[in-house]
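B., you asked whether I could sanity-check this one before it goes into the benchmark set. Here's the sequence:
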Amino acid sequence: MYQTQDFKQKEKALLVGVKLPTIDDFTHQDCLAELKLLAETAGAEVVDTVVQDRKKLNPAFFIGKGKIDQIKKICEGEKIDIIIFDDDLSPAQIYNIEDRTDVKVIDRSSLILDIFAKRARTKEAKTQVALAQLKYLLPRLAGRWEHLSRQYGGIGTKGPGETQLEVDRRQTRKRIADLEKVLVKIDNERKIQRKNRADLFKICLVGYTNVGKSTLFNRLTEASVFVEKKLFSTLDSTTRILKFSKSSRCSANVVLTDTIGFIRKLPHHLIASFRSTLDEVRLADLLLHLVDISHPDFRNQIKRANEVLAELGSKETPTIMVFNKIDKLDGDFPYVQNVTCGSDFVFICAEQGVGIEKLTDLLDRHLSEDIVEGVVVLENSKLGFLSFLYRFGTITEKKIGERKTQVKIRGKRWSLKRLQNFDGKIKFHFL
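And here's what the prediction gave me:
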């Protein structure tokens, strides 16, 4: 088998990509460039890249056997420690390639999970990453215990006994269940924190990874969130008060949350594990969708980010498109009207502070407009709740019946929306 690497030194990596007829050249090259950045973020030294054009994938080796022999020669000549594929491999494919090359093989999902594991700092992030790793590992356990595949019995076993694979799967499932319980507990704590912020206007920073979200977050909140020009520098959501100037029309208390960045081929089990963190996105009143406008494929990055937002149920949340890194453009800004989908948009350079005033003015306008009306119905035994309603808007009409009271209230949509959080005490709907 392949030799283990001394992790005090950088592992020499060989990248492997497959171009199918359905993938265009630009997208394929961008995928490989992103894979290289992922590998470097994980601490590897990328030595070479191998690409194969195929009409369909090889079920045993993913790529052709001839290409495997070519990869083996490169690994021997360059003393490669790890082969990284740009797509997910089956357990059998990983085993077959390792058997042929005597070099450790991982796929893109495994690489992303490794980066997450290294960058997790809080208990929540570490638990989420561990859960995602185990869900990734569970279907790949087959074949790892071939030398112990026979069943055993005797004292201390039930019936005919279990194979080592069955034992390993059972222990993995138990560990997954334990971690899910821990995340439920953490999620309940988050719900209490969110409840305490029920009367605040919540803005969330979203977008592709490495577009400058943490830099903008620090600029808007005067925070000191860790910033690094590598992928996934932020795993935990961070929330701070957003302060407006004295001349602002906005009287609301506003919080801004920085979230994990999205990426091409982000593993679905990773999204599922980080759902409690990403709930901050789902519950936001306004999204700031940050885009690196200097990136040649920024339109597809917007598309992929929108796909994740749709999966989280945030597709209809009001959004401001924020096009960052305008300092890296040589000429005029690229035409972006076709990707804003009617949303407001602004051009900025978060690092230099260019355009920040325009962005805050746009936020100010969003928080100051959109006046609507709604109706609150509550039991007469809960009329003490009426005084609480003045925090959300202006009461324009009040009808007290024998058992229930109906109140018409006028105010800003984002503020009245909070009345939907008091289920059991009142009933509310927009007119």
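One thing to flag: The radius of gyration is 26 Å. Otherwise nothing jumped out at me.
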